[in-house]
């Protein structure tokens, strides 16, 4: 028996060693070929030409298991440059494939192509991908489904069915024209004409009755709904009539299950929920409606879809519809957020940084810039809207920051200025109304040493139009350790942080005139975009790049660039 044992442990030893060397388990490899092009759709009685992947809206799904590697070749047959980002995938050591335009790459030109490598490591559940150039994300997005690795299972009973539910914004006009017009006037962009559920507006909109999305269910069965919010500029409430939802995951990590009659979901977030078809066989509405606590303009329409039970029954004459928090009910929004807690068990351990080496306090504001005379700006006289982090409005470079960082031998000071660790002028952020609304602009970044234990407190301010902001960081998931209203108090608030089972997420809602605190360990070297996931706020500069320096070894350093990156000129 001895030699055989030796062989087995030798094989195990080899697998263990190679897992150490390559830093991940060896999963399967999947390849996709995508063609980005313009496609015509008729919705809301109007035919619009929109950019798609493979003619589909929402776009194709990626299916993989935890630990797998996915290669996606994007062929751009559209009329303008585009990039694709894998939202919530950490891309260990590989920012080269992350996708945000002018941060990690230049756009894939019309006629060009680019193959990106998506390395799934610890993510499990639902993530998504989307265009990360201009506003192309409106129609260029889709789900990434990450199933448990072989030999492991969900931390809940295997569902009987699995369905992706995608929320999007629909414009009758070309979304690039909407963007260009708002840039030329400096004012708020036109709001979308509809919200869609799996591409369909639903029966409250013109010409949309027939095509409304419906989910067929069987009585007694339980379904895993993988819900993702790709809406451009609004956070949403979602509910299903006469069915409660059990939230089991968010942003590609499991959470302690809790049941809720409604979801609060920001652009960028995903929620995995279980729904059991335990009511009388009939039709029930699923309803999607905006949450808004601001006075700036927004799309105040409602999208509906159906749950239809299978079997024989008479189609109901009046279909039950769910009740909702009020559109500006920030308390219900916040009550939902604080219910998210990670599993934090032995199979799903967490490691919340406790010895913070970098603490950042960051104000999040909507501001103004004065325009030069007669440039057509129309806001409050001759101004345009802007947005900032610590009073800096991010200016995107015209080459890729990551490439410049690499070419300059990782010397950050040669490529950008450092964003201050705290607001340049302290004030009572959530109450002082007479601060100047004007901000300054620059390509400012935050630099971390490899292994830094980071805390960032995002603080909403009373400057300009106030509202909730969905802040998102690439290359990481992080722990939401606390959130509250008013000004963050560094004396008392940290003692109430949840360091035991905070949710591990990649996008968080920073409450209007309130704050949210996140923690993470900076152990993924690279250049990572951080921004508000409202498209118009990113356009206005509510963004920065986080540069995490290399460690001392190859395994703690960024990989070298792939042999081909889309050229910048
Ligand atoms: Cu959903 Cu910068 O990304
Ligand atoms: Cu914002």
UniProtKB/TrEMBL annotation:
Q: What class of enzyme is it?
A: oxidoreductase
> Which domain of life does the protein's organism represent?
Eukaryota
The positions making up the signal sequence are 1-27
* InterPro entries per UniProt: Cu-oxidase-like_N, Cu-oxidase_2nd, Cu-oxidase_C, Cu-oxidase_fam, Cu_oxidase_CS, Cu_oxidase_Cu_BS, Cupredoxin, CuRO_1_LCC
Gene behind the chain:
LOC111315750
Xref: PROSITE patterns = MULTICOPPER_OXIDASE1, MULTICOPPER_OXIDASE2
One molecular function GO term is: hydroquinone:oxygen oxidoreductase activity
Its localization reads: Secreted, Extracellular space, Apoplast
* Record-stated family: Belongs to the multicopper oxidase family.
Task: Tell me the function of this protein.
Answer: Lignin degradation and detoxification of lignin-derived products.
The EC code for this enzyme is: 1.10.3.2
List the protein's name. Answer: Laccase
Q: Which cofactor does it need?
A: Cu cation
């Amino acid at each position: 028996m001895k030699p055989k044992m030796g062989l087995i442990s030798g094989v195990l030893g080899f697998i263990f060693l190679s897992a150490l060397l390559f830093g991940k388990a060896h999963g399967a490899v999947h390849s996709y070929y995508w063609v980005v092009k313009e496609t015509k759709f008729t919705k809301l009685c109007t035919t619009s030409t929109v950019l798609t992947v493979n003619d589909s809206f929402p776009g194709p799904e990626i299916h993989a298991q935890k630990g797998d590697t996915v290669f996606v070749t994007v062929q751009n047959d559209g009329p303008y440059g585009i990039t694709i980002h894998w939202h919530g995938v950490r891309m260990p050591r590989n920012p080269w494939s992350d996708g945000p335009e002018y941060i990690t790459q230049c756009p894939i030109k019309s006629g060009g192509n680019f193959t990106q490598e998506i390395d799934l490591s610890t993510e499990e559940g639902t993530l998504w991908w989307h265009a990360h150039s201009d506003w192309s994300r409106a129609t260029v997005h889709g789900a990434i489904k990450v199933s448990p690795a072989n030999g492991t299972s969900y931390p809940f009973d295997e569902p009987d069915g699995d369905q992706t539910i995608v929320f999007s914004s629909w414009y009758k006009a070309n979304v690039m024209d909407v963007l260009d017009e708002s840039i030329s006037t400096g004012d708020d962009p036109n709001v979308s004409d509809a919200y869609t559920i799996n591409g369909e507006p639903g029966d409250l909109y013109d010409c949309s009755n027939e095509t409304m999305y419906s989910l067929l269910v069987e009585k007694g069965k339980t379904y895993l709904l993988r819900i993702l919010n790709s809406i451009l500029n609004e956070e949403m409430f979602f509910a299903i009539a006469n069915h409660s939802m059990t939230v089991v995951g968010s942003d590609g990590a499991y959470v302690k299950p809790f049941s809720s009659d409604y979801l609060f979901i920001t652009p960028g977030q995903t929620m995995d929920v279980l729904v059991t078809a335990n009511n009388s066989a009939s039709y029930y509405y699923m309803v999607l409606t905006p949450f808004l606590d601001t006075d700036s303009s927004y799309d105040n329409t409602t999208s509906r879809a159906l749950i239809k039970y299978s079997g024989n029954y008479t189609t109901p004459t009046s279909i039950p519809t769910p009740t909702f928090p009020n559109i500006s009910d920030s308390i219900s929004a916040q009550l939902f957020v604080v219910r998210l807690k990670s599993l934090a068990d032995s199979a799903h351990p967490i490691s919340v940084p406790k010895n913070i080496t970098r603490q950042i306090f960051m104000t999040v504001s909507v501001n103004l810039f004065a325009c030069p005379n007669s440039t057509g700006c129309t806001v409050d006289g001759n101004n345009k809207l802007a947005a900032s982090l610590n009073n800096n409005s991010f200016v995107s470079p015209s080459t890729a920051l990551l490439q410049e960082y690499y070419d300059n031998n990782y010397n950050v000071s040669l490529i950008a200025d450092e964003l201050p660790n705290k607001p340049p002028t302290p004030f009572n952020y959530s109450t002082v109304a007479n601060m100047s609304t004007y901000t300054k602009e620059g390509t400012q970044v935050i630099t971390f040493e490899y292994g830094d234990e980071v805390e960032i407190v995002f603080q909403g301010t009373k400057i300009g139009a106030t509202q909730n902001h969905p802040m998102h960081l690439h290359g990481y998931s992080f722990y939401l350790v606390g959130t509250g209203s008013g000004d963050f108090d560094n004396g008392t608030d940290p003692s109430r942080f949840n360091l035991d089972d905070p949710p591990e997420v990649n996008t968080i809602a920073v409450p209007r005139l309130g704050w949210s605190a996140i923690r993470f360990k900076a152990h993924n070297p690279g250049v990572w975009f951080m921004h508000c996931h409202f498209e118009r706020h990113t356009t206005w500069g509510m963004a920065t790049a986080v540069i995490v320096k290399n460690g001392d070894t190859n395994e703690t350093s960024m990989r070298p660039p792939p042999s081909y990156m889309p050229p910048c000129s």
